[in-house]
Amino acid sequence: MTGSLMVSTYSMWAQFRNCRQAVYWRYIQQLVGLDRDGNLHFGSLIHQCLELWHQRRALAEVLELIGTLCPNRLYDEGQRRDWHNATAMMKAYAARYAAEDLEAVALEKTFQGPIVNPSTGAASRSFVLAGKVDGIVRIGDDYFLLEHKTAAQLDADYLERLWTDFQITIYAYYVEQTMGITITGILYNILVKAKLQQSKGETEEEYEARRAELLAKSKTGKTTAKRKLPETDGEFQERLAEKYTDPAMFHREMLYLSRDRFDILRSELWELTQAFLDARRRGVFYQNTGFCFNFHRPCAYFALCRSNGNPNVIENFYQRVAPNEELRVLPNETTEPAF
Ligand code: SF4
Q1: What is the mean pLDDT of each run of 10 residues along the chain (339 residues)?
Q2: To test ligand 1's pocket by mutation, which of 29, 37, 302 has the most ligand atoms within 8 angstroms of CB?
Q3: In terms of CB atoms within 10 Å, which of 3, 35, 36, 247 comes out highest?
Q4: Is 337 domain-assigned?
C-alpha cells in the first residue's frame, strides 16, 4: 500500500479477470503454494541472465551468474536441469546476437502511475499501477519495449497470440507517461527451451532385463548389447549446444503499438478497479471454475478451493508471501546498461 493507495500490478488484474477467488487467495490472504512451478525458476533465471548480458555483454559473467543461481545443482535435479539448459541457451544466445543494432536505454525498469477514470480524467483514490519492463531499447530513432519470453515451442499461434498481450501494451502507456518518450512498439525476444533430457543410463537390473529380451529374440543366442551409462555433463552440454545451433531456437518479433489500443486498455483497467472495489466491499470473490485447469494443470489454489479453504490445507501446502514479488529489486539489479 502507498498511503491508502493499493499498489496493483498487471498480474493482479489479469488474475482478477480470470478468477476472482484466485485474487482473494493471493492478494487478500497472501497465499502461495509451497510447491511453486519449476518453470518459474527457469524463466526468472533466464531473465536475470539476459539482463546481465544486455548490460555487460560478457558471457563469462553470465555463466558465473547461472552457477550462482543454481547452487545445489550437484544434488538437486531441477537445478541441474535449469543449469544445463540456461548454460547452453545463453552460450548460443551470446553467439547469435554478438553484434546487433539496438541500444539498451534501460533494463529492468520499474514504473508506477495513476489509474485514471477515462470519463472524468480523475485518478483512482484506491489503486496505482506498478510494473517492471525487461528493457527499453532504441533502434534508429525509435524506442521499443524489450520483452523477453522463454517458450516451450514457437509456432504461428504463439506469435499470433502476442497481439493479446494486455500487459505490455499497458506498460508501454505508463512508460511513455513516466519517462516522457514515445514507444513505437514491442520487441519480443523469444528463446525456445530445448526439451532434451540428460540420460540417466541404465541400472544393472534394467540392463539385465534388456539383455535377456535381446537374447531371447536373437537367432545366434548372442548379443553385443552393453549397459547404457549415464550421460556425462560434458556430453549433455554438447547435445544441447547442437540443438541450439538450430536458428529456430531464437526469434525476435516486432509489434507496432496502436494508439487506439491504449484507450481501450486504460478503460478496461478502470473497469477492473471498479469491479474489484465492489467485490472487496461486499466480500464476494466468486470462483471461475472454468479456469481451474486452464493451463492444462490444476490452478495453484485448486487444493484450497476443493477443500473450501480448509485451514489444515493452508498450513500444509501454502505459505504467506507478500504480493507483487515481480517488483522486487534483485541483488544484481541495475537500470544502467553498459553501452
Ligand atoms: S482453483 Fe479454480 S476456482 Fe479456485 S482459485 Fe483456482 S481457478 Fe479459481
Answers
A1: 77 93 95 73 92 95 96 91 96 94 91 93 94 94 94 87 81 90 94 91 82 85 81 93 95 90 89 96 95 89 94 93 68 31
A2: 302
A3: 36
A4: no
CB-based contact 138:105 (threshold 8 Å): yes
Specify the number of domains making up the chain.
Answer: 1
| Cβ–ligand 1 contact at 287 (below 6 Å) | yes
First vs last C-alpha separation in the chain: 36
Is the entire prediction scored with pTM above 0.85? no
303 lines ligand 1 (CB under 6 A): no
Identify whether 160 is part of a domain: yes
Q: CA 171 to CA 257: how far, in whole Å?
A: 11
Which of 160, 161, 168 lies closest to 187 in space, CA to CA?
Answer: 168
The CA 183 to ligand 1 mean position distance, Å, reads 36
Q: For residue 335, is it within any domain?
A: no
Is residue 182 in some structural domain? yes
The whole domain housing 59 covers 6-197+238-327
